[in-house]
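assembly run, all chains below
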Amino acid sequence: MSVKRDLKTKLLTINMGPQHPATHGVLRLVLELDGETVVNCKPYVGYLHRGTEKLGENRTYPMALPLTDRLDYVSSMANNIGFCVAVERLLGIEVPERAKYIRTIMAELTRIANHIVWIATHALDIGAMTVFLYSMRDREWILELYEMACGARLTVTYPRIGGVRADVDQEFLDHCYKFTEEFPKRVEQYETLIDQNRIWLQRTKGIGVLTAEEAINLGLTGPTLRGSGVPYDVRKFAPYDAYDKVEFEVPVGKVGDVYDRYRCRMEEFRQSNSIIRQCLEKMPSGYVLAADAPGYDMAAGPRKKPAQPSAPKAEGAADTPQPPANQPAEQGPAFEEIYVATEVPKGELGFYFVSDGTGKPYRMRIRAPSFVHASALPKMCEGSLVADVIANIGTIDIVLGECDR
Amino acid sequence: MGPLEIADLIKSKFSSDVKDVVEFQGQVSVLIKRDNVREIMRFLRQTPELYFDYLVDLCGVDYLGKKEVRFEVVYHLMSIKYNHMIRIKAEVPEDDCSIDSVVDIWATANWHERECFDMYGIVFKGHPDLRRILMPEDWEGFPLRKDYPLKSDLGAKEWKKFKEVIEIGKKNLAYEVR
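ok done. output:
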């Protein structure tokens, strides 16, 4: 038919976001579509840019700590710990054992809370709504545990450089233990809701496939990388806090599709639960803040330690200012630099500090996993169906606050 | 392989490019000249016993008035296979603020380099799509440079289009602004 020959198709450019419920924040994608197929995908980020790195350069290390809460606001505790671990390594501060265990518990609770938000929103995006309601109920439990430990639920700023702000009480430990007993059942509950669901399987299996080489080359980390079968986990490769004293496995996938990444995260629920359990059982007693933990003004400069090691401070004493040192820092413009990575729920969160010997970082660089993961979207989406773009955004688990910093 | 051994290997292979090797807290940084950065990176990526398959991070640092050469581009490399790390720093002078891109070696460098350009104005030669990424497209200045103010005195540094947008908004308003 001659009519058919005259019909011409044109690529359709559509704009997805920045205000779109499935983009998990203010991510904007410009998609070029050929029918239902994505030909070109261009992500635009930066809508939530607050200049965290610039702000960090103008604050002392302890004052820059609350900025890290606002990066990945669904797992703020893990960001705090990442920052503290990096600064401790730079300043050479030894953290008390008990604080290490408390932090490990908090980091793993955060991992569970983050993955709960992830499974809830990811399933909601793909079309399984029920799991959202059940999982949010369990996240509330973790937020209550946070509240018990530090009084805050979201932007906690509970870890401090050199330990944690205050010791946890027996009530917290009991509730935490109760949580670890109950939570595996809840994970099973989520799995019965979606694991055998035909729609879920069709929407996730074989979608957004990345091979191991591609995933490493794109710089992906965390469960997003492990879904492709690469067992890279900072907790195993460069242990910090108490991770070298607990036993856990790093779940990996085979195919590298959305389903494998989902399985990895579901398995991490159980591993995190087991880590918390082990930490609770092994929890030592003692102080929770190092004696040489810096006060907020850092007047003594980062490399200065007290002339005589005084008795460890009482709990919660980090907020009291230290007396200013008489002599100025003796180093000239010698720069010291350090890069320390931690495994936050989303992947590898790295802090790169350049110190010039004063109380403020000369350069504070945040290597945010969400930023790197968002850059992988074109590779994952191009050639797939437009409906799978949603599945791909969900599976890389991004938070735009961290992406844009 | 230990980081100092890796640094020695780079030094023996590119003796004229390596300017300095510094160790701190078990981490080693190698300061290089920018001219051969691609060859060095390709060497690190492709040598079987080094196999740096993962570019952890790429960022800029501004040493205004602190060092002879103003900018440095910092590469953190890691090999997942061997679990070793190295930090490479390439000097970039202010008057010719450019360096070769490494996007074809590690795809993850794409956005990192765009961010570095956005924040420091360092041009990456050979980058496929060098645009601003975090700041608006028409932004003036490079925010992370040390001579860029933390707080702007509104007026001089005001976003140019701000007034324009307000005008358009007023024009389009059907009702009167009270």
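The longest strand of chain A covers residues 336-344.

Residues 304-332 of chain A have pLDDT under 50 and may be disordered.

not gonna interpret more than that til we talk
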